[in-house]
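Appendix C: a fully annotated inverse folding record. The material below is reproduced so that readers can follow the format used throughout the book. The structure is listed first as tokens, followed by the designed sequence.
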């Protein structure tokens, strides 16, 4: 029995290796800066394999990786404020999942590229919400993030930009973000499973790609403090931009 025998149907050894390479790069970005993994992974990976498959793959990998962080986040988070935003995700995640399950792959790829490009501009702008707290706004931010997560696992920037702009201790903001995404990932797991997106193929692929992603995260974390965070964040932004461009369907005949 060879390594290829463990691959899901319709996923060649070449595709698996390409997904592993993308996972390592995106994991390195996540390990160093705490962001950017989905924004790098999704445009590139969805140009290599079906968007539905790679979105489920990234969800499984991130769900497993984030689970150990949740108990500490539960203790430190402002659970009441986080619960309000989670209400938005409860609606947004299923809606995003629905569109992922019914749209044609090429259409989904165009939407993913557009979303990621918009989220990159949001990151580059340095946007932070510094206005007053409003329940309707919190629910709206949670709904937007949930929709992006359900469609393409790219819900990070709206939530991060919102929580980091609040007048609260950074440790509480981080815990709120982790707790929100724990809930959002749970909603996504339920939504993906109910629509058949969590499949034997995605689980098998996660066993292959997941360890490579974990190595990338560990490698990125080891770089923290050894190089300029400003420089590395700039590299992450550049990688996201390259991922958006390289993942455009219009370039399929040239790059793939």
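Designed amino acids, in order:
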């Amino acid at each position: 029995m060879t390594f290829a025998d463990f691959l899901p149907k319709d996923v060649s050894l070449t595709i698996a290796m390409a997904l592993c390479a993308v996972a390592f790069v995106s994991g390195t970005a996540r390990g160093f800066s705490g962001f950017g993994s989905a924004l790098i992974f999704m445009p590139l990976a969805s140009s290599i394999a079906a968007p539905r498959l790679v979105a489920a793959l990234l969800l499984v990998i991130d769900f497993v990786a984030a689970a150990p962080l949740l108990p500490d986040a539960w203790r430190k988070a402002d659970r009441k404020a986080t619960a309000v935003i989670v209400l938005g995700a409860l609606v947004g995640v299923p809606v995003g999942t629905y569109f992922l399950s019914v749209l044609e792959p090429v259409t989904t790829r165009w939407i993913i590229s557009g979303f990621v490009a918009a989220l990159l501009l949001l990151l580059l702008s340095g946007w932070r919400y510094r206005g007053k707290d409003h329940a309707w706004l919190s629910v709206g931010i949670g709904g937007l993030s949930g929709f992006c997560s359900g469609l393409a696992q790219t819900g990070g920037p709206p939530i991060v930009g919102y929580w980091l702009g609040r007048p609260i201790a950074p440790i509480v903001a981080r815990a709120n973000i982790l707790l929100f995404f724990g809930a959002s990932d749970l909603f996504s797991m339920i939504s993906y499973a109910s629509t058949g997106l969590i499949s034997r193929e995605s689980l098998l692929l996660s066993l292959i790609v997941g360890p490579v992603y974990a190595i990338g995260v560990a490698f990125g974390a080891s770089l923290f403090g050894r190089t300029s965070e400003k420089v590395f964040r700039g590299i992450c932004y550049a990688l996201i931009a390259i991922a958006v461009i390289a993942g455009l369907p219009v370039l399929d005949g040239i790059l793939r």
